[in-house]
Amino acid sequence: MDWVSFTKALKTVVFSHLAVYNHLHKNVKNVRVGISENIVVYRPKTGFNVVDNVLCKNVDMLMNQLLLKTFTTAELNIKFYFPTYIQLNEKLDNVCLDFVGLNHYNECLVGFAPMTEDKIVIDMKHGEWPTTVMVWSWVYDSLYVACKVVYEKYKLPIYITENGLCQDGVN
Question: What is the pTM of this model?
């Protein structure tokens, strides 16, 4: 992954959202501005493995929480040491999120894979759980878990904007 391009793109997204948020709140009466975020529930592949737990938290922060945390705290602060060192510390003028649009389809297991190039494996299949056509496991409580985690962290209204699964012969 090109981390330099990632950080540039991330800053562009954050400051563009802030500018639009501020413009809308200044010019439109009773407007509410949010983002639609795809929230994947990440769980460690091996619950007792410390490395899997740390990787799981880092993947969750990078993939799920980074924009939500930035927009609700007015600070873009990230620091990762694995798989590469990355650090950003940027201040925003104000918080810029009134609600969360939550997209949720699946849960993934995160584990350390020292013999692979990226050193991380993200598995969408959970052992013997039933799967969708896309080979994502059906994890029955994951929509509940996704909503609960987002609400407990950010205390904002949640609108479920996408959810579902892909099955042959089901409309």
Answer: 0.86
